[in-house]
Protein 1
Amino acid sequence: MRRRGVYVMLTLCGVLTTALIAFLVLFLTGGQGANASGAPTVRVELSHSQGEVLGNYGFTAWTNQMFMQFRGIPFAEPPTAELRFRPPVARSPWTGTLNALNFGQRCPVITNLDGQLSDAELEDCLNLSVYTKNLTASQPVMFYIYGGGYYNGSAEDHPPNYILEKDVVLVVPQYRVGALGWLSTYTEELPGNAPIADILMALEWVQLHINHFGGDPQKVTIFGQSAGAGVASSLLLSPQTGDSLFKRAIVQSGSIFASWAINKDPRAQSMRICVQLGCSRCDEEDQLVECLRNAKVLDVLRITTTESFSPIVGDLQGILPQQPSELVKSYRRQIPLLTGFTQHDGSFVLASYYDALAAKVSNVSSLTVRQFSQGIYDLNNDTSGLTGNTLNRLLFKREILNSHDHSAAVPSYFDLTSTIFMKSPVITLATRIHTLQPSTPVYLYSFEYEGKYTRFGYEFGNSHYPFNGGVHHSNDNIYLFATHTLEGQDMQMSKKMVEVWTSFAIDGIPSELSPLTSASGPYNQLNLEITKEEDLLETLTSAIDDPENGRLQREDMEF
Ligand SMILES: *[C@@H]1O[C@H](CO)[C@@H](O)[C@H](O)[C@H]1NC(C)=O
Ligand SMILES: *[C@@H]1O[C@H](CO)[C@@H](O)[C@H](O)[C@H]1NC(C)=O
Ligand SMILES: *[C@@H]1O[C@H](CO)[C@@H](O)[C@H](O)[C@H]1NC(C)=O
Ligand SMILES: *[C@@H]1O[C@H](CO)[C@@H](O)[C@H](O)[C@H]1NC(C)=O
Ligand SMILES: *[C@@H]1O[C@H](CO)[C@@H](O)[C@H](O)[C@H]1NC(C)=O
Ligand SMILES: *[C@@H]1O[C@H](CO)[C@@H](O)[C@H](O)[C@H]1NC(C)=O
């Protein structure tokens, strides 16, 4: 809630300042004017007679530069009715001026549904937002793919006021999330990976139209975080990604090599959901399709709150025709890559595992440390037990493993969850690509700054956990998108992050970072100062090796 409050504050400041400069703007360039209520607006004509869009103004966070914003430009037809689950269809041209003054509808999420809207309106979410300072320039384009566990996320959650301090154009497309995007039966009607196809279509839109917004279509950087990292790394490996769509990539916290990044049995999932919708004959393809396609948005969302969704291998569009571990073998792109994780990127998995366990076992501490960690390995489905055996040896002292001393094990739990779910998949992506294409730079980072704000417990609160969140998953984004009011060192950190990310987008070299020279390193620790460290596998033991790791345990609460 705090985040929304801050965002509203930013918007309000924008509106006030807007009034002050309205006069100035009116006389700047053609295409700019004012709407009926006197607020300044700007018109842009798209290519190929697609139509005209009307935008307005925002202001950067630190130097109050004015930028133009076009929020909610549709790039695809609403994926509703017979288009539901199907690859996106390009938006047909419109006549007159289309208002892009506010964000379009987010793709349906159970917690954010507007009950007044019809399903067709709710599903009309394939809009993108463009932020730019100069319509006639030719600036590098940063194309952000949001995270949200493949079931959440929106353009609105990513205010541009830090990134627009630099001379770049920011594009934030929306893509389908949850069942309405990811369900598949490997058939024409439910081909799979529709959300990745949404992103591909938005990238094509950028190629066609971004020059009208002052962006250079030859200089597009994709960046994605968490589930968005899964999508961004899929685009890197996919044979369906044309070579001109983007020239650099940033993959934050996760990759398509993670076990959570691929849905192994979407067909069974589709049938399960069909049955839960109360339909009959869910084992017959046409009945199944009819059921899923005609289901009310609210019903689909309501019965899928405990399902997880993600990309699939073998979709009919050929986006991921083989396992990522196979696809990477023929990787030939020359795309500079910046990838990494937060220092304690897995602590959110520890938290949700803890919640799930506490719901089943009345006293979590009655489990031994070994039993507790086994449950985490089980989430990863490694049937050989190799992961568990090796990580038990690496991360736990022998005497702790058979004890109930969970407090002492907290740093080990941090390293274990971070390694399995985030760090190892990122390191695999980075080192496989570096090894195959040594002449293309790969930069690896560990984000280690601990500031005032955290995303720990953002959704459900964090006061009930017997541990703290550390440098939590998504905390890096606090410094890239203007969701909080940052001061002092936090603002300095934000300036550093924006400098690194945008310098990479501008010339392919992230300011102050060192590229991999071998599969062992070096890597870069991102903090108020950036430091180069030689051995990247040291990141896997970063919590247990930390002399100050006592702060990860809660002082006021027994585990
Ligand atoms: C005029 O622009 C303001 C801000 O740009 C917007 O909030 C308002 O809805 C617009 N009014 C009309 C009539 O389009
Ligand atoms: C997507 O954006 C377009 C243009 O602003 C708008 O017409 C459309 O209604 C938006 N979709 C929703 C559901 O808001
Ligand atoms: C989705 O994200 C929004 C905005 O961050 C949040 O308000 C909402 O609670 C989230 N929904 C779920 C189901 O996590
Ligand atoms: C916008 O970009 C053009 C082309 O680079 C340049 O000539 C112009 O001065 C820029 N305008 C502003 C306000 O910076
Ligand atoms: C929970 O289990 C631990 C370890 O067996 C034990 O020390 C503790 O007293 C138990 N707590 C409760 C409330 O039963
Ligand atoms: C892990 O395996 C179990 C049992 O085979 C299965 O039900 C579950 O879906 C699997 N989870 C993942 C993430 O593959």
Protein 2
Amino acid sequence: MTYINENFQKLQAGYLFPEIGRRVRVFAQENPQAAIIRLGIGDVTEPLAPAITRAMVQAAQEMGSRSGFHGYGPEQGYDFLIDAIRKHDYAARGVEIERDEIFVSDGSKCDSGNLQEIFASDAILCVADPVYPVYVDSNVMAGRSGTIDANGRYAGIVYLPATEENGFLPNPPTEKADFAFLCSPSNPTGAVATKAYLQKWVAWARKNDAVILFDAAYEAFIRNPELPRSIYEIEGAKECAIELRSFSKRAGFTGVRCAFVVIPKTLTGKTKNGARVSFNALWNRRHCTKFNGVSYLVQRGAEAVYTQEGLAQTEEQIAFYMENARLLREGLAAAGFRVFGGEHAPYLWMHTPYGVSSWDFFNDLLAKAHVVGTPGAGFGPSGEGYFRLSAFNSRENVLEAIARIQRSFGR
Ligand SMILES: *Cc1c(COP(=O)(O)O)cnc(C)c1O
């Protein structure tokens, strides 16, 4: 008899995006003439910047020569990329990160799902609600929860409602929690943390010997240079925080795959006997055991993001998406919607009209405007009554979507 990991059976049956895909397919079959505009899944739409493709082509040619061939690289990433990250993402903002504090990977989704392995099996997870589903589901699979209740919350996980009242930036928990995911700028709400807000979290983590997992996948979308891009801009964060970054949204790498985790060597946790152990050492052990490095080509592509040309070209793409976000924000507000986000994030978080549920609004928006978005309830119970639209699309489609929404729902 082979028993299964029954924790998987605690997971909610329909994962959000397959359910959206199913509904859109049914609608498209029944309405073959409808020109559907997809503002649902958060995937980029602009092609890779020329500086990046050039670097990857060159790397491919190198790999085809005897002298330029690369086999397995360092599991943690090549120094050429790690040094570019240290210089541009950290030193430029006054943060010193050492080489062996950075772990290059093939994506923040994997990193955010895998990092839980370095915590005790009975460690208590804390997340915002609504939240990026990976943080929760990966911990449910690992057995860090009880069963799900009627509201869609798992027993044993601490949820912090992100609401209009708190600006979608909940305060640290008052109940016990050992590690907490923070995502800023936030997917799904588009809310962005200020320095003062992160200071509250760092103070909480230090006081409670807890760890913050700071997901900064959207840091490049922050338009105000005063806002923190890294949690390490907060004093004391190197003793209590891990940071996740990705090239996916920032440089269009969703199909290329490259990201990294920062774990300062000053960050420690304790054993049941009370000894302090470095999380960096644990993650290094885990990474080397289960991961064999990101391809040389991809790391050369990521390095090119930091060249003068690469920075200018990727910034232009981000500015393009953020102009889409501004148009959506203003267009929806003009149609009478209460809209949030979209200022430092490529996501708009809107209140559903007429008190309809977020899934009913999904159906209405698809039926009347042929626009696909993401129901807020799919990100957690406090997302009910809200709806996410993404700014990742062509200008033409964004303008057309706004016009259709104004025609169908304008008040
Ligand atoms: C898109 C996204 C990521 C990035 O995932 P990759 O696996 O690097 O493509 C990470 N966190 C959040 C919240 C995201 O929305």
